[in-house]
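Q: I'm a student working through a structural biology exercise. My instructor gave each of us a protein and asked us to get a predicted structure, then write a short paragraph describing it. Mine is NADH:ubiquinone reductase (H(+)-translocating). I'm not confident about reading structure output yet, so if you can add a plain explanation after the tokens, that would really help. Here is the sequence I was given:
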Amino acid sequence: MSVFQVHFIWFLVFLLCTLMSLVLTLYSSLNMVSWLVSFDLFSLWSMDMNISFYLDWMAMTFMTTVMLISTIIMVYSYNYMYPYSKSYYFLWITILFVVSMILVITMSNMVYAMLGWDGLGLVSFFLIVYYQNNSSIVSGIFTLLMNRIGDSFFLVTLVLLFYTYDDFFSFSSSLPSFSLLIFLLLTFITKSAIFPFSPWLPLAMAAPTPISALVHSSTLVTAGLYLMMRFSYLFYSNTTIMNSLLLLSIFTSLYAGLNTVFEMDLKKLIALSTLSHLGFIGMAYSAGLLYLSFFHLLAHALFKSLLFMTMGDIMINLNHSQDIRYLSSGSLMTPFSSLLMSVSIMNLLGIPSMTGYFSKDLVLECMNYSNLSMFIMSIVYVNVLMTYYYSYKLFYYSFQSVKFNPYQLFHSPVLLHSILMSLLGLSTLFFTYVYMNMVYLSVLFYPVVYTVKFLPLLLNISLFIYLCVFLCLPTVLRKSVSSYFSSMLFLSPICMSLMPKFYYNTMFNSVISIEPRFLNQLMHNSSFTYFTPLLTQFYKSMLNPYYSLYFSLFIFILLLSVVWLL
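A: Happy to help. First, here is the predicted structure for NADH:ubiquinone reductase (H(+)-translocating). I'll explain a few features afterward.
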């Protein structure tokens, strides 16, 4: 079969799964029912091994969102990745990511959930290094290492859970230990790129744009926050943990927003926007707004994936140039994509009747009536101000006077591609009414005074004053401030310098020499003949005394921490 036929078949499969998931979501939300589906795998030594899925309104709603975005990505990726080779490789890795994401969402057993958790990190690495150039491979290795840190925390969490609880949702009446909550928090914030594990998200933009839309803006980065919401009755029992999460989320959102002021790379700008919203979701969750934070998580996944896909269409016309200053010339050639891009940006701005208005601004109004201090709320206002800034920045560079790129191309999306993107745009408009009427209608009856309703206007005025002050700064001062924030507060150089150089060299050589041959052969011919060089390369790296020393030290510290906690 041709590549188009394979993509179309999987598009139909994903579309059917999306419709089935939507029906189950509506039924579980209206009736507030849940299902625990269990399958027996095998019996060994009088021990039954089974796998179980927990399906409630929260899991089904998130799974429907993931399946909807994945269905559109199936068509979008064919149109976007058609000029490149390794089409089957890209398709199967994307499908494997969706399966891993569903395992994380629906598993009731943390052991099986870790299969999906590890699958997310591994598949993300393979997709980041897709282009096989130096920048993508270094970004992929750094992302893999950061996710390995979170996986080690996950292993310690599993040990503590085995000694504390029997099952994922069968918790005893006793309160959890502080050590368990610490490792749970570290596990989840690593995957969701909360400070200090933030630098991997902008580097992950080396992946193809369809993967940035599916993985690094809407689904994978929210997996940690989603599981944190599933463990809400554990986290809300400890005030220290929630205050720590609040401070980390505020700082993440603040410095990500400040980075957007100076960033001119289009994909990194949207990645920093995603990072800012992840911090905002963490703030809402730590303030006790569980359902509203989950609502903003879903809404953000919808309109941010739409923003990435429309930007991808525009970038094709710019010969994949990511300089935001050429954005207007690409927007001129794709008016339909520019229209949908405007819809997603209006969601970022929180224009009334948009989903972003009900999710972001409603969270902000409810936080005004929480127990947060005035200092914390002032920082929250600054974060929202940064959101307005980079949204206006995208508008300004999209519709300013045309600056033509000398390497400009003309590309028009196919009809099905445009229809599906329109469907995603409509979902960003009507998702609010479905969620609010079925799940959390009572939040609309918060007693809000009229002065709070003027908050968006006040923030816009403050934004204008801020722009005037910033433009009046000397050029040298602006460049020094720009270099400071563009380095993620020097967090990226510090993290890169902490990793041994031989570790990067070993993994770099492995990716260059083994990964294309091994995975292409595996996808096309289902042959494992290239698995032997992989083991050989790993064995040679383990013979390195420095690497073996670091590896042994890591295992020793991990075991020592487990013994100390027990």
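A: Here are two points you could use in your paragraph. Residues 435 and 523 are 40 Å apart (CA to CA). The first helix runs from residue 3 to 31. It's a good idea to check both against the output above yourself.
Q: Great, thank you!
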